[in-house]
Amino acid sequence: MMTPMRYLVLVLGIIISLHFILSFSHEDYGRATSFSNIASQIKGYTGGPPYKDGVPAEYYHHEEAVAAPDRKANAAFVILARNGDLNGISSSVKQMEDRFNRKFHYPYVFLNEEPFTDDFKKQIQNIVSSKVEFGLIPHDHWFQPDTIDEKKATEARERMVKANVIYGGSVPYRNMCRYNSGFFYRHELVQKYRYYWRIEPDVSFFCDLDYDPFLVMQDQNKTYGFTVSLYEYPETIPTLWNTVKEFIQENQELLAPDNAMAFLSDDHGDTYNRCHFWSNFEIGDLDLWRGEAYSKFFDYLDAKGGFYYERWGDAPVHSIGAALFSRKDQIHFFNDIGYKHNPFQHCPQGDAHSKGKCWCNPAENFDYEWYSCLKRYDQLF
């Protein structure tokens, strides 16, 4: 019998396949001493995907004591939320605490374009085991800039609404995409950190995590970590790839050697296959976004206005940036972190499932459904 998850995957797959068929004709729219050895072992890796080698045993912290391990990364959870998201984000944070942070005690940074209420702050502080800070987003970082032609932007939104494009008529959604693409890492509360883990309301973390992903990122010189990857809706990014190609032509020296272009394109960059990492979950190196390459890249995109004239999402923007400005071995699939953001989930398989005491159904796993992009990531190696 077909499970609800597989039925949903089938239906969504049919819908996305129709998008592809219709768009192919107009592509122009388009603590151990071994720690010190890990980076050298990963660099220049030529075997299968590095995640399949597993995490070295030295990273695991099995003790149930409330004291955090002696060695930690300079990292925090970063959460963009509104006051109305309190129930959803409380659920997400409580799961994070139960699965991971009760042992590791990393701090949280909450960001909002409006001041957080006292009730919001109190409930979050009651849940977490570590320091938490609440920040206000600067006005100019959040709202639509004055350089945008509002008439043109309104017409674009109206066309998307008629075409039933998800969030097609929403300005706040566009503000959020632009903010996550180019501004969250500039916030004064985030500036002091090197690594971040993004958490959103109403997500699920299925498995106990007995090692520190931030240290994996740090010691292995990773820049970006993901759990789910898939194809973007073509109607939301009609001119994004042409804009990316223009930037590449003008700034080829900024591209990383041995980058992950092959994850994004099947023809060496001529066209975009629309693969992206689902950015509602990401563990990243903030220096990637703060660096010269991505800074110039975001500014170039922002000047084109596509966040408002179209509906460019932070997921494809982050994914393209990470793929072009990192080596391919610096992008990591966190295979042992069970995660769900409705309707898709990554449920660890085999030993990873039992080792993490995961409570998801292994049969309901998005990894290798036909419109998942994980197979393209695997093919990089």
From TrEMBL:
Signal peptide residues on this chain, from the entry's feature table: 1-23
Keyword line: Signal, Transferase
Domain of life: Eukaryota
Gene3D superfamilies referenced in this protein's UniProt entry, alphabetically: Spore Coat Polysaccharide Biosynthesis Protein SpsA, Chain A
GO molecular function, one term: alpha-1,2-mannosyltransferase activity
Residues of the active site: 282 (nucleophile)
A cellular component annotation (GO) from this entry: membrane
InterPro entries for this protein: Glyco_trans_15 (IPR002685), Nucleotide-diphossugar_trans (IPR029044)
Biological processes per GO annotation: cell wall mannoprotein biosynthetic process; protein N-linked glycosylation
Xref: SUPFAM superfamilies: Nucleotide-diphospho-sugar transferases
Statement: the UniProt record of this protein carries the keyword Hydrolase: no
Similarity comment: family membership: Belongs to the glycosyltransferase 15 family.
Protein name: Glycosyltransferase family 15 protein
